[in-house]
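Action item from last week, closing it out:
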Amino acid sequence: MFKIKIADTIIEINNKYKYLKNVCKDYVVEYGNPEFSVTITKKDIDQERNKEDQHFEDAYLESICCYKLICDNMLSYNCFLLHGAMISVNNIGYIFIAPSGIGKTTHIKLWQSLLGDKVKIINGDKPILRLIDNKFYGYGTPWCGKEGYNINSRVEIKNLCFLYRDINNSLNKIQKKDVLNLIVKQIYFTNDNKNTIEILNLLDNLINKTNAYALKCNLDLDAAKLAYEGMK
């Protein structure tokens, strides 16, 4: 058993395998009373394995189940999980959204090549977003994709960027009415269907508080330059 702090929330984790605590090592805290606790059962692990016929070790699957249980509970704190790569540039948050394999990580690495230390990768794959005082903040988490890019930090989210592969680079603003259909497939919805309305309300709020763009891009540095200049 140990405690972590994610999205300004202290969570107690009742784990079975040491792997999970090692995954969370940069987020472990010794202080504070937990807001809630999660316990991962053997049934949870077996169900996760059966979902996609995943032949992973129990310790790894415990970690996946843990994050899902955390996200189920975090909705009560105006939080949800978005599949995207999130960076901070001069304390402004950008989230790059696309299905796996399109090149989110490759693109944010171009931003690092362009802007150097100004770019901080807060989370490379699965950040938590939280509404606080009418602002949306994106938080680093230990669950961050195979590259392991994450920082135990937060940044206010200002821009959403949907990535598309193309030979040529172009950036266009997306009308707010069109954003929901693009983003909804990249959201983790809890196992409780009654929570869907709450998540959609948070999404609607996020859309209204951010700018959204469609970036068609190749793998050249010019793609990052166009995106940065167009969104900043």
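Closing note: The chain has two domains: 2-77, 80-231.
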